[in-house]
Specification:
Radius of gyration: 24 Å
Strand content: under 5%
Order of helices and strands: HHH
Structural class: mainly alpha
Helix content: over 70%
Number of domains: 1
């Protein structure tokens, strides 16, 4: 069983937190836009940019943060695995050289 580094685990937890916050903020943004459109203060037709911009400004950054912290955690796992593989290969090569002598 491979162990996951503490830093990767922390990054995955932060990524999950950002994901939860993204969904919560998206739902809140949806309720706000629905309320504004429902009162008749604004119509969707002709204001598509403003509606999409509201979602992008309030929800999209958290999706980006979640994605980036998750990728950073994955990269750390891959680098750690690569480093361990290189150490094992070097150790095996040194052992084979000493056995040949």
């Amino acid at each position: 069983m491979r162990r996951v580094s503490y830093l990767s685990a922390i990054l995955f937890v932060i990524s999950a937190w950002f994901t939860i916050f993204f969904f919560w903020n998206f739902i809140e943004s949806n309720e706000h836009v629905r309320g504004v459109l429902g009162t008749g203060n604004m119509t969707f037709r002709g204001n598509e940019f403003e509606v999409v911009n509201y979602y992008m400004a309030h929800s999209a950054p958290y999706a980006f943060y979640a994605l980036m912290t998750g990728i950073m955690g994955w990269v750390i796992i891959r680098l750690r695995h690569r480093r361990l593989t290189e150490i094992i290969n070097i150790t095996n090569r040194i052992e084979s050289e000493t056995d040949a002598d």
